[in-house]
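Deliverable D5.2: sample structural annotation.
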Amino acid sequence: MTSSDDIKYAGADKRVVRWSAQGNGTDPRLSRLKTARNPSPGRPGGSEMQKSHEKAATKCHSSRHAGGRPRVSEGQEILATVLAEPVARRRSPHMSQNGGNANIGRDGHDAQKATIRPGFGSGAIVRSGLKPVDSKVHETPHQAIPDGSRPGGSDLRTVITGGAGFIGSHLCERFIAEGHEVVCVDNLLTGSLRNLKGLEGEPRFQFFEHNVSEPIEIDGPVDNVLHFASPASPVDYLTHPIPTLKVGSLGTHNALGLAKAKDARLLLASTSEVYGDPEIHPQREDYWGNVNPIGPRGCYDEAKRFAEAITMAYHRYHAVKTRIVRIFNTYGPRMRLDDGRVLPNFMGQALRGEPITIYGKGEQTRSFCYVTDLVEGIARLLEVDFAEPVNLGNPSEITVMQLAQEIIALVPGTKSTIVYEPLPQDDPRRRKPDITRAQTLLGWSPQVERSVGLGLCLEYFRMVV
């Protein structure tokens, strides 16, 4: 049985080569069909794959006359499935000999969409042309430097997808502070360049606007890939269900392809939503969840569940060094007031003096982790050799009604009252992480009390409301 990593599939991983009876009709790749990318000895499916290759090659060649033309009438075309050329035979002009060239996607093969070259200038910003430029943060021109060089003597280069988002931007700052070179990749669907203003002029930071569901190339060495690209709030993933599914599947595949090609560590941002509406409480990592795959929230829940599955497959089959973090409710500066999550909803409504909307009776529970605590846990997890999921969140549980009352108390003089709306379909009734694994493996637990975190978050929202 052949593997999807060995034979390209139509539309994404398989190329269908077309040739005509006009001309000699030869394709040089057919001569390599029997031997191209044969599996190493002992690899699962090796003998079956080789037989499949030989059968395909025999069929293709037996259909020809001695002169090499296919046995078809003039003007007819035939289709033959062939293995894609190894990447070494299709080196792009930008591909480096030292440090290499890798694509995000297709296991390091075949990406031609866009190239990130290792230029760090002063907070260099590279655009793919998807959106108009509207911020001073990317006025600095891109300055390319030779492959493999590491400006300023830094030791590590980290790629963060979704780095212009709420959590991603805090991660960019954290790894810059630790001396990394950081390449931020984001298509700005839900992220914002405003979140990166603090990195303006930073010589070790580079932003690249690109959708990671499409292939992309990165020159030079890469040590870490943190895959945080995805709509994450109900408003966003219900508005963009197809992009959400794509970035959880194709985007994760692409990020894993980069990590595999660069021999880099990959950390996947998963979510407590993989537990769905949980039937056990609190939620441990060995709980398989209670998810409605065809409900309105399924586009996000199942995208993340698939992302975890393919990440573990790459770890087991390709020995990619992977980590998975299951993120519970997180809050802090750079959340969007309009992103639909309960905490910014309540704070925005309280600051504007509007009624605070509670869905259901407000008896459902959540637990809220301040963003700096989460970032600390992610940084620790990246350094630990552990591939299975790890919950990161604050186990201090609170009802939605209690949260509304706490926020009203933080806004003196607010005219907000509480109104009730029907509970959305598949809304989790209880959500609380069991963080025993994080405590044991990482020596991590949240440090910021909710009263302190809510005050800091409210200060930020006062500036943007």
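Annotation notes: The chain is about 30% helix and 15% strand. The first strand starts at residue 15 and ends at 20.
The annotation will be released with the project's public dataset once the embargo ends.
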